Amino acid sequence: MADAWMIKGSEYTNCNCAWGCPCQFNSPTTYGKCEAVVGARIDEGHFGDTRLDGLQFVMLLAWPGEIADGNGRMQIIIDERADDAQFEAIRKISHGEDTKPGATHYYVFNSTMTEVLEPLRAPITLSIDVEARKGSLSVPGLIESTGSPIVNPNSGEEFDARIGLPSGFEYTLAYMGNGNSKVTAGISMELKDSYGQFNALHMNQDGVVR
Questions:
Q1: Where are the domains of the chain?
Q2: Which of 45, 69, 195, 200 would you label with 83, given CA atoms 20 to 30 Å apart?
């Protein structure tokens, strides 16, 4: 691999599956296909000598069937504040390049793609509070997404649910919530009251840092 890299921050995901997302348990998707929008904030990071602190990016992912069956489409949107070196670094990381085979969700997702659209550079507004299970993502004219806690319909209280994956390739612990998204970029989707995921993001070219 040409460069060592590391990113540390947080991630908010909304996909079309029911709350809990069977994919987290190696089971078939809820509706037989997968659509997802993922917002990532890098609080601290580098790609070789290129610093990535404070930058953000978005992944748009869509498969016509199960992820493992492939034929997916993918597009990355990278923070407009990134210079050319930072843009290329995030592109490589999010496309699974300079990564140990199978070590990250970026690598695995990219390996299932038939079409990888040209990355976009755009302003990204992203807010994530992992433990509160809240997130908001906006890319003007392209993406509006909001994540919130699941509310228990019987008590009216917020429902605190978590998934722990000690050997997961994306996270060790994720908080579960509700998500709503409208996406009109190279990949379009509209998700309503579906799976929301909030997790710390800490990985390098060898996988999740634990």
A1: 5-208
A2: 200
